[in-house]
Design goal:
globular, five-stranded antiparallel sheet, two-stranded antiparallel sheet, alpha+beta, Alpha-Beta Plaits
Length: about 140
């Protein structure tokens, strides 16, 4: 059985801070997958290649650190994304692609690295680099 991650219902995603409702949102509101009120659904790269939703996620190891990637070309394949990270030690089966509400690629992805140092090295080296005509934003996410 394959599960697909979906955003929470609107009543569960409401802001509890009344002052925050009057404040305009910023790009920082969506800097981390858990920071957004409605995070995009995700699908693992392996499941996408098989035409299914993501398998249940295994518990991440404490020494495995994730990196969020924003700005991906919408037509980039999992192989393209993994090739972008060649030269870095990552868990190839950890790649997850963000999907918009219509199930299309959102231009976001998450990938886990073998160590915090390796994740930080990838972020330092690759943040702002281009994939095709789009520059990518990378940040660590736990």
């Amino acid at each position: 059985m394959v599960a697909v991650a979906h955003p929470p219902p609107p009543h569960l995603g409401a802001r509890s801070d009344p002052a925050a409702a009057s404040r305009p949102s910023s790009s920082l509101d969506h800097a981390h997958p858990t920071a957004a009120a409605h995070p995009p659904p995700i699908i693992s790269a392996a499941a996408q290649q098989q035409g299914a939703g993501p398998p249940p996620a295994a518990a991440p190891q404490p020494h495995h650190v994730g990196v969020k990637v924003r700005g991906l070309p919408y037509r980039s394949s999992p192989a393209d994304i993994l090739a972008f990270f060649s030269g870095y030690q990552f868990l190839s089966d950890s790649l997850q692609l963000g999907l918009d509400s219509a199930g299309r690629p959102s231009g976001e992805a998450w990938i886990r690295f073998v160590s915090p140092g390796e994740a930080q090295r990838a972020v330092q080296d690759l943040h702002g680099k281009y994939m095709g005509k789009r520059y990518l934003e990378l940040c660590t996410c736990g």
